Amino acid sequence: MANELNKYSKTITQDESQAGSLAQLYALGLTEDDLKKAQVGIVSTGFEGNPCNMHLNILSHQVKKSVKESDLVGLIYHTIGVSDGMSNGTTGMKYSLISRDIIADSIETVAQAQFYDSIVAVVGCDKNMPGSIIGMARLNRPSIMVYGGTVKPGKWKGEDLNIVSAFEAYGAKLGGNISDEDYKGIIKNSIPGPGACGGMYTANTMASAIEAMGMSLPFSSSNPAEGDPKQQEIQTVGAAIRNLMEKNILPSDIMTKKSFENAISTVMILGGSTNAVLHLIAMAKAADVDITLDDFQRISDKTPFLADLKPSGKYLMEDLHKIGGVPGVLKLMLNHGYLHGDCMTVTGKTIAENLEAVPDLTDDKGMIYSFDTPIKKTGHLQVLYGNLAPEGAVAKITGKEGEVFEGPARIYEDEFSAIEGIGKEVQKGEVIVIRQSGPKGAPGMPEMLKPTGAVMGAGLGKDVALITDGRFSGGSHGFVVGHITPEAQEGGPLGLIKNGDIIRIDATENKLEVLISDEEMEARRKAWVQPAYKATKGILKKYINSVKSASEGCVTDE
Fold first, then answer.
1. Helical pair 180-189 and 163-174, crossing angle rounded to 10 deg
2. Whole-angstrom Cα distance, residue 549 to residue 130?
3. Euclidean distance between the first and final Cα of the chain, in Å?
4. Which element (helix H / strand E) includes 251?
5. Is 44 annotated as catalytic?
6. Full DSSP string of 430-474
7. Catalytic residue, candidates 220, 222, 473, 551
8. Which tens digits make up the pLDDT trace of 501-558?
9. Quick one: residue 425, left, alpha or beta (phi over 0 = left, psi -120 to 50 = alpha)?
10. What is the pTM of this model?
């Protein structure tokens, strides 16, 4: 059976003419018996500079042990990561979205060059998950994504904390609404150890979506980073990847149109990050599945928002784990007709078969609202069009902010000037506009967690809106619209508006408009001069040259 599993690795392990390959494999300590076995590439995004990733190299070695126990050869390799939490609010955030594509390219490159028969990716922070799935989809070899898990809540004076607590504490400091003791206490205690940011932010959103899609083992997305459940999950990985190899179940068998719909529905139910739109479109392109902005709106129109999770709600991912985790939510969705149960998963079973033995949620806190009384009857992610977004924009409207906002524009050419202006010149009723922040304009389409955190901390969360051709962190909340396309740098209407122009955001009619005449817009367009790009060399310049728009998932391989 082993020789039937090594369809790629046999190129260098079973060909006597590959003397150099064999010599190097023996140098690794492999035996003749080992060379007859299939090889599993175990790719880690572990690095010491980010709590989301600091434990992943340890988990990778535990995966290797599990793989060996399943009579396979596991070989660890590495790719990069970028800490979104650290880079937010700095020029480092230009590199965050770029890292997704580097991760995908790295996974593909090493696996192709080294002839690995299957892939296990051990991942943590925001761009790790979609990057790994894009790489797996391109390779189309048996693959499993292992999520490193969520961090425990921090604590300060009896309050649960998370990364967004730190950003909002800074906003409170700007507004003079917090003592120095409390500010430092929150900063020092927000993150108590390893694991991804604790709310339904981008990391947990993507992990949940990918589990719903079937590309990770049950409970992987909600098992905390520390503790027995994650360790028990890791111990099953070797048997699971061998089962996929023996049955030749490939990512293309799992990543179908219906499985992407399951992922999108899960994002809507859980109140997930706007980044899911970018990433799921990019993942679908890699898997040759047709997913567009309009699929998100179609599913949002019929899917309620149920989960009272941060950033807009009360609870953290660890709280969800305690009541039954993501599988408990998926079972609830299946029972109410919001999940395609016949989709294949990495267990070798359908998602419905996986959920048969899963107990119902034990929710005595009202963490997951009922389908009869949802937080919002339709999804919180709304795709907007209009004269400010001819090719689309993505709004995160939980219903708590209202669904329509109209006010004069307060324009900033980057997030740094916006952060300076919030709490000083921004007035209630205004629409903050941050432009030149798209994939080509910034470049890199940075997240706006620091500006939205400053808005919340300054007490303006219910009184202003914020729109941008950049992105938002999964931790952002409030009346926010991002991914506006075309972006300002490329001649999009966002680059033509002026301070004081009246902006109308209507999530009931799915419109994003500036209330000026078509004639005035055309006159401004004719007078517009394209700004110079902000990068002339290096990876930022490569990104400008290759990246597609946000509505196309910011892919770089087309």
1. 160
2. 17
3. 38
4. helix 251-254
5. no
6. -EEEE-S-STTTTTS--B-HHHHHHHHHTT-TTT-EEEESSB--T
7. 473
8. 999 999 999 999 999 999 999 999 999 999 999 999 999 999 999 999 999 999 999 8
9. alpha
10. 0.96
